Every structure is written in structure tokens, then in C-alpha cells.
Amino acid sequence: MGRVVVFAAVSLDGYVGRDDDMPGPLFDWYGNGDVEVTLSDPDRPFRVTGPTAEFLREHVSGTAAMVCGRRLFDLTNGWEGVPPGGEHVVVVTHRPADDWPHLGTAPFSFVPDVRAGIERATELAGDRDVTVTAGDVGGQALRAGLVDRVVLALVPVVLGSGRPYFGTGGPPEIELEDPVVVQGSRVTHLVYDVRR
């Protein structure tokens, strides 16, 4: 059985995007190397350093489904119907996407809450991993005990304010195991298993 993994690039002060939702320098490492890597969409290649390429192949290539919130879905226009990682996207939303031009033809599901999103993505993934986007959806999943692993692509920048990695929810306190650390260029990859 696969794992449920919260994964995102994050600033030193804990933000996954600026107040305007844009990543700013958080994504610069996706293009600062000479090794080409694609995840699920061959039309979206990244050019990263060797250590980062190896990290992505090991920790992201086993992903079959992704869970995200409606905010990210709207900001990206649902990636034009092509999942950015894995073969399926599950969107947590209370608003129907009836006017989305890819509805019914793209491998996207829409569910009303985080628990239903994780359940649907896990069903679609089979024995492969599910990623959950950081922010409110990832934070809710972590606090509900639905997450097995937290992966941060820590970027050496302080944004000052923005969208928090773990969302805006409060307790409970959650302990993580010691990290696996992979040093890239302008990014440090940290992999923490959730302590059970």
C-alpha cells in the first residue's frame, strides 16, 4: 500500500506562496540545473541538479494521485486537465466545477471534504503514493491523522508573509521522525515520516 504524502516547496519562514498566491523564488530550483526530469506530464519538464533529480525520481515518481484544494485548482485552471503529478487529481471543494472545459474528460474528481479526498485518491492510487498539496488541505489531512509523510523542498528565502505550509488550522501537535536530507542547489529536500 502506498503512502499519503504532503509535499511542497516552502520558504524558511514556512510559506508555500506569497499573499497573492504566487510562488516567487520558491520554484526557481525547478530550472537551475542541467538534468531534465518530468513527472507525469512530459510537456512540463524541469531542469534540476543531479541530487534533486535523484530525489524527485525516488520520492515523486511513485505518485499515482494528488489531492488539492479548489483554490489551487482555480489558480492553475486545473492544469488544463493534465495532472501535474500522477494520473489523477482529486479536488476538495464545495463549489461545482460545472463550467470547467475539461470536466468529464480529464482524470479529475471533485469531493466535498479532505477525508473523502484522501479516500478517493487512495482508491485511485492502489499500492502507489498519494500526494496532498500543502496549505489548508494538507494541514487538515495531517491534523486528521491521514498523512504518513511530510516532504519539504526548503528554499533559502524569507517571504515575510503568505500562505502557510500547514494551513491556518490549529492543534493537535504532531511529531515527526528524524528527516532524510538531500542537498540540492538553492533547495534542501527534507523527508519526515509521521511518528505513529
TrEMBL record:
A Pfam family this chain is assigned to: RibD_C
GO annotation terms (biological process): riboflavin biosynthetic process
GO molecular function: 5-amino-6-(5-phosphoribosylamino)uracil reductase activity
Record-linked Gene3D superfamilies: Dihydrofolate Reductase, subunit A
Coiled coil residues, start to end: none
Residues annotated as domain Bacterial bifunctional deaminase-reductase C-terminal: 123-178
Protein name: Dihydrofolate reductase
UniProt source species: Geodermatophilus saharensis
Record lineage: Bacteria, Bacillati, Actinomycetota, Actinomycetes, Geodermatophilales
